[in-house]
């Protein structure tokens, strides 16, 4: 793949070149092909599915300590960027902002949390993360921009979510992915690319929000969540999610037909019984 060529999972200008893969290639006396490196990077990312992101301590853009455990209880969208990135991270962040707005409109304003983590240590400080958020006009109260000066903490997060990166003359070569965490802080899905189709992120998020309600919601709450799960649909032409009321019309017609059939059978049964008694 030529530099500058896009791929579904990789940074457009920064390809993931993990040091271990390059070292392995050197030992084998061969240079890994771009497609092979990309495939292995995706394998690392996919192998993280089911991993639990632990109680890691970060600082948000205001300098406030934030433990990742405090975001449990609802789905989390997590992306790793470096603030000095002038192209790929910018495009990916802007697109994530757009998709998050659409998702909140369909699933609820407080239905999930977004975390953007700066992995470039020690450059990505709370002040840098705050400047990054302002640069792209992100003021979502449930979107936090995190960083840490502790390399051990950063390494643990990177390994947990299957993120692959490597320093390069242009900054970093790295995968471009949004990691979807479930309510327990486990990796649920990986969504790749700077610009991805909206349903690729919203559908698994919708499943977490509606299909796996917390037990405290009760029976009626769970029924309501199931209805919203199946009735919230994506309109590709309008590029939006909306609540489709036609399902209720179909249910009503189905119940009416079923009820009419049962009533007819009962009447026929009574008529036949009277005929036998006569």
**Could you list the spans in which at least 5 consecutive residues all have pLDDT below 50?**
1-8, 12-31, 213-230
Question: What's the name of the CATH homologous superfamily of the domain at 19-196?
Answer: Glutaredoxin
CATH architecture of the domain at 19-196: 3-Layer(aba) Sandwich
The averaged pLDDT comes out at 79
- Text of the CATH class of the domain at 19-196: Alpha Beta
DSSP strand count: 11
Q: What are the secondary-structure elements, in order, as H or E?
A: HHEEEHEHEHEEEEHHEEH
Rounded to the nearest angstrom, the radius of gyration is 25 Å
**Tally of individual helices:** 8
SSE layout:
Blueprint: H1 19-28, H2 34-47, E1 57-59, E2 65-67, E3 76-81, H3 88-107, E4 113-118, H4 126-135, E5 143-146, H5 151-161, E6 165-168, E7 171-174, E8 177-181, E9 187-192, H6 198-210, H7 218-231, E10 232-235, E11 240-243, H8 246-277
Parallel strand pairs: 3-4, 4-5
Antiparallel strand pairs: 1-2, 3-8, 6-7, 8-9, 10-11
What does this structure look like?
The chain has 278 residues and is α+β, with helices and mostly antiparallel strands. The chain has a domain at 19-196: 3-Layer(aba) Sandwich (Glutaredoxin). The protein contains eight helices and eleven strands. The chain has helices at 19-28, 34-47, 88-107, 126-135, 151-161, 198-210, 218-231, 246-277, and strands spanning 57-59, 65-67, 76-81, 113-118, 143-146, 165-168, 171-174, 177-181, 187-192, 232-235, 240-243. A hairpin with a 5-residue loop joins strand 8 (177-181) and strand 9. Helix 3 (88-107) crosses helix 6 and helix 6 runs antiparallel to helix 7 (218-231). The model is unreliable at 1-8, 12-31 and 213-230 (pLDDT under 50).
């Amino acid at each position: 793949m030529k530099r500058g060529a896009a791929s579904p999972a990789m940074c457009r200008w920064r390809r993931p070149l993990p040091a271990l893969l390059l070292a392995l290639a050197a030992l084998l006396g061969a240079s890994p092909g771009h497609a092979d490196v990309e495939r292995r990077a995706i394998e690392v990312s996919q192998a993280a599915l089911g991993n639990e992101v632990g109680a890691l301590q970060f600082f948000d853009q205001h300098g406030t300590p934030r433990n990742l455990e405090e975001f449990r209880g609802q789905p989390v969208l997590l992306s790793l960027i470096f603030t000095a990135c002038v192209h790929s991270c910018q495009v990916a962040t802007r697109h994530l902002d757009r998709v998050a707005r659409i998702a909140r409109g369909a699933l609820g304003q407080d239905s999930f949390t977004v975390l953007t983590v700066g992995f470039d240590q020690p450059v990505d400080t709370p002040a840098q993360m705050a400047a990054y958020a302002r640069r792209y006009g992100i003021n979502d109260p449930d979107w936090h921009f995190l960083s840490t000066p502790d390399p051990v903490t950063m390494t643990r997060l990177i390994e947990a979510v299957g993120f692959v990166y490597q320093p390069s003359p242009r900054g970093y070569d790295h995968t471009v992915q949004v990691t979807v965490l479930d309510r327990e802080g486990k990796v649920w899905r990986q969504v790749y690319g700077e610009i991805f189709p909206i349903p690729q992120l919203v559908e698994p998020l919708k499943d977490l929000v509606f299909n796996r309600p917390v037990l405290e919601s009760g029976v009626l709450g769970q029924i309501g969540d199931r209805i919203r799960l199946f009735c919230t649909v994506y309109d590709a032409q309008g590029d939006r999610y909306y609540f489709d009321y036609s399902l209720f019309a179909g249910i009503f017609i189905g119940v009416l037909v079923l009820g009419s059939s049962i009533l007819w059978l009962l009447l026929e049964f009574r008529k036949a019984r009277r005929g036998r008694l006569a």
